[in-house]
Design goal:
single chain, 313 residues, mainly alpha, DUF6261
Length: 313
């Protein structure tokens, strides 16, 4: 007997943040699984499958053309340049929040708050990164004094230049793709996602409407396979991102020539807040008149204890 609620849950839209190559492979793997199912029992027509297959092939062709293009190599160089500019920009803002110069510290704190939504845009899909940088530039027009105080005017100008150069390369490559009658990458990805989502809805509806236990069992098995593929690709993507982040961290460490512990003052064996030993109690009036007095005493200044959560630059 059919039920009004479904115990099955499809994880359908999981390829949105994948690279173009991984996105196409994700859909191809899902296609290979679903196309082997009993299509009438999941209410998926051959035309729907053909439309999906055509969309996947368009994605594959776009990726192939992109990898073979000389312009693509130039785009990679420009993308690396703007990522480095963003790292420089955000790194200086973070570091100067701890400046002892009050105007610099206040400017950095304001920039940190206002531009925080853009921190980490280097990890976005390249086309999205272009638009996010433009959005950040628009927001930065009301932060010109703070940017100048931190000496970031030249960094912002350099970022603008390389970002626009990257966009010009995108347009050039797109025009080359037009000669092959290929759509924009984003449009191609959205087409594959739309068809896959529709197919997933058909599968779920078929489960709800079926009155045959064997058919419902078959659909449950199919859904388990679909979700397993989604999970595998999602985990692989997460591992890849983690490896890239770790490699970047190692590279930054190599470039600085310092180990994580470098730059700290040598430990003299005393903690700032160590109490005096109980077997040698002293009262404030026990000091002899001739005893030398250390500047500032032994007590650290309030509010200057090292914050273990501070960013290290």
């Amino acid at each position: 007997m059919a039920t009004t609620t479904s115990p099955i849950k499809l994880e359908s839209n999981r390829g949105a943040r994948f690279s173009n190559t991984a996105h196409a492979k994700f859909h191809q793997t899902q296609y290979d699984l679903i196309s082997k199912a009993d299509l009438p029992k999941i209410n998926v027509s051959p035309d729907m499958l053909k439309e999906w297959k055509d969309a996947i092939e368009v994605e594959v062709e776009i990726t192939r053309q992109a990898q073979a293009s000389v312009i693509t190599k130039e785009m990679l160089v420009k993308d690396r340049e703007r990522d480095e500019a963003l790292n420089n920009l955000f790194g200086i803002i973070r570091a100067q929040r701890y400046s002892h110069v009050e105007p610099v510290r206040k400017a950095a704190e304001k920039l940190s708050v206002e531009l925080k939504p853009y921190f980490g845009i280097q990890k976005e899909i390249n086309e999205d990164e272009t638009e996010l940088i433009r959005g950040m530039e628009k927001d930065a027009t009301r932060l010109v004094p703070e940017i100048a105080v931190l000496g970031l005017t030249d960094v912002m100008q350099h970022l603008h230049t390389v970002n626009e150069e990257y966009e010009r390369l995108i347009v050039t490559r797109r025009n080359d793709g037009d000669a092959l009658n290929l759509p924009d990458t984003r449009v191609a990805r959205q087409t594959s996602e739309r068809i896959f989502e529709a197919i997933c809805q058909c599968i779920q509806a078929s489960y709800l409407l079926s009155t045959v236990d064997a058919d419902r069992k078959m659909i449950t098995t199919l859904v388990t396979g679909i979700n397993h593929i989604s999970s595998d690709f999602r985990d692989t993507h997460a591992q890849s991102q983690a490896q890239k982040a770790a490699a970047k961290k190692r590279k930054e460490g190599d470039d600085s020539g310092k180990k994580p512990g470098d730059g700290k003052k040598p430990d003299d064996g005393k903690k700032p807040s160590d109490p005096k030993k109980p077997d040698d109690p002293k009262k404030p009036d026990d000091k002899k008149p001739g005893d030398p007095q250390k500047p500032g005493g032994d007590t650290p200044k309030p509010g200057r204890e090292e914050d273990p959560g501070e960013d290290q630059v």
